[in-house]
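Thread amino acids onto this structure.
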């Protein structure tokens, strides 16, 4: 069993990175200001020299924890969501109890803390050649790092096939952050587990919104075409 688990995790990590690139395309096509891209302990948020950046970790009082990575998109207005990722449940001594994949079936709520214009630029020094460039995304789609608190209803499926359901809180401490939500990270509550994984024990989170001027730019060619129409003399 041990030799299988890394293979399965690697496969889902590869799928997750594909979803991450699709996420950029989805947000680019959207003009509704309520649409957001979403990174959780993955992509350019990860720093190979700092293991606390990825994955995101939620810890229980008893000591065991869930390590979670993911990516996707959601609409804060109609509550639609396309988010998926991987997870690992570990004991207090760090031993793996179970691993698997998770998906979000519903966006329960989202509260935005506002945009943080310099956040994506701050990520540039940590990029590797294997990761897509946030600068390229920023130029192409007008993506803007945004802080906020998202609450998802999630389903976790272990490699053994056992499914669990629960609620995942994701907090990105950018923008105008309330004092009580100043710690970035995740919290997890599972219906089948009496433990509350309510301590943000590490990991990076970021929401990506479309800047308002991006929508205006998209409409500009129409106006220019109208202005450039040939004029006739009376």
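Threaded sequence (234 positions):
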């Amino acid at each position: 069993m041990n030799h299988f688990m890394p293979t399965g995790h690697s496969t889902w990590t590869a799928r997750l990175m594909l979803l991450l690139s699709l996420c950029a395309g989805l947000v680019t096509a959207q003009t509704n200001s309520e649409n957001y891209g979403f990174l959780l302990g993955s992509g350019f948020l990860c720093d190979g020299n700092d293991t606390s950046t990825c994955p995101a970790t939620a810890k229980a009082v008893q000591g065991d924890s869930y390590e979670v990575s993911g990516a996707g998109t959601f609409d804060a207005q109609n509550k639609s969501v396309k988010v998926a990722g991987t997870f690992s449940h570990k004991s207090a001594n760090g031993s793996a109890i179970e691993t698997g994949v998770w998906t979000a079936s519903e966006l329960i709520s989202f509260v935005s803390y506002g945009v943080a214009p310099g956040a994506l630029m701050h990520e540039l020094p940590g990029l590797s050649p294997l990761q897509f460039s946030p600068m390229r995304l920023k130029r192409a789609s007008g993506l803007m790092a945004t802080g906020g608190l998202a609450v998802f209803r999630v389903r976790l499926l272990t490699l053994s096939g056992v499914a669990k359901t629960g609620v995942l809180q994701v907090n990105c401490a950018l923008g105008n952050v309330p004092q009580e939500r100043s710690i970035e990270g995740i919290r997890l509550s599972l219906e089948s587990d009496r433990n509350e994984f309510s301590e943000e024990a590490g990991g990076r989170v970021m929401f990506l919104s479309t800047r308002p001027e991006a929508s205006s730019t998209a409409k500009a060619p129409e106006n220019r075409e109208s202005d450039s129409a040939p004029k006739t003399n009376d």
